[in-house]
Amino acid sequence: MLRTTVQDATGAPVVLVDSVSSLDVDDRGAVAVTGSHGGSSSAEWGTRFLPGLIFFNDAGMGKDRAGAAALDLLDAGAIACAVVDHNTGRIGDADDTWRHGVVSAVNRAAAAGGLTAGQTVRAAAEAWHTSGVSAGR
What we know:
By secondary structure, this protein is an alpha/beta fold. The chain is built from five helices and six strands, in the order βββαβαββααα.
């Protein structure tokens, strides 16, 4: 199981995990970069520990029933999420839709924190940690 914690330029924690289900209580408020959603039960686990922001390095996020259910749970919990193109390391095309068929996008909570399509993960994480939205979590 992959689990590494690094810091962004603001000194805030960024947790690298292979699935949302790998998050734990120490990750509250952190930025999480994960390889997959792990389905709705994994997303439920993630909402318990309230990471500040989740980047999914998975272009197929939300394309199956489990992925759509995971996105719904994360949206309901107001967990900010963005799907990243793993080839470019950038939040993908804003023309894609967040729900049911998402390839790359940000949800409402992430957009409220200033995340937009085209940002690199690094730039988005640093912007997130300096925004008022992330400070309120």
